Amino acid sequence: MYAYARIRSIYRKGAEAMNDINTSHNVGISLAEPAERALGRQILRFAETLEGVAAGLRINLLTDYLYQLAGEFMRFYEQCPVLRAETPALKASRLKLCDLTARDAPAGLDLLGIRTLERM
């Protein structure tokens, strides 16, 4: 939940940039930094994780995924400036990674019956 609340804070601080991201479908994602790549790989595992949960009724796969997603996001957040990125394209890329994380986290928490918070 903390990672999701952190992303919501980034959204509030970069509202104009998020509007640009949401209206543009051409935002490419750059995975140049190790923390960006690790987060991107984790995001890509969401569908696979849900399939594993459904196939084997193993809810622990989802809890493990969400824990790892939060950890990867926090490493990304600490190592890769989002709103103060060096270029507008890099800022857009990192905001898109935040957006994708913000979609997976509440969806997974909702499946566990946990409500998300906008602020902590």
Radius of gyration: 14 Å
Uncertain stretches: none
Distance between the termini: 9 Å
Averaged pLDDT: 85
Put simply, the count of helices is: 6
Question: What is the approximate shape?
Answer: globular
Structural class: mainly alpha
Describe the main β-sheet briefly: none
Q: How many runs of DSSP E, i.e. beta strands?
A: 0
Question: Strand content of the residues, in percent?
Answer: under 5%
The helicity comes to: over 70%
Spell the H/E element sequence: HHHHHH
Give a short overview.
Helix content is 73%, strand content 0%. With 120 residues, the chain is mainly alpha-helical.
Written description of the protein model:
The longest helix has 24 residues, at 88-111. Helix 1 (2-13) packs antiparallel against helix 6 (88-111), helix 3 packs antiparallel against helix 5 and helix 5 runs antiparallel to helix 6 (88-111). 73% of the residues lie in helices and 0% in strands. It has 120 residues and is mainly α.
Give keywords.
mainly alpha; single chain; 6 helices; 120 residues; globular
Architecture blueprint of SSEs:
Elements: H1 2-13, H2 15-23, H3 34-44, H4 46-56, H5 59-79, H6 88-111
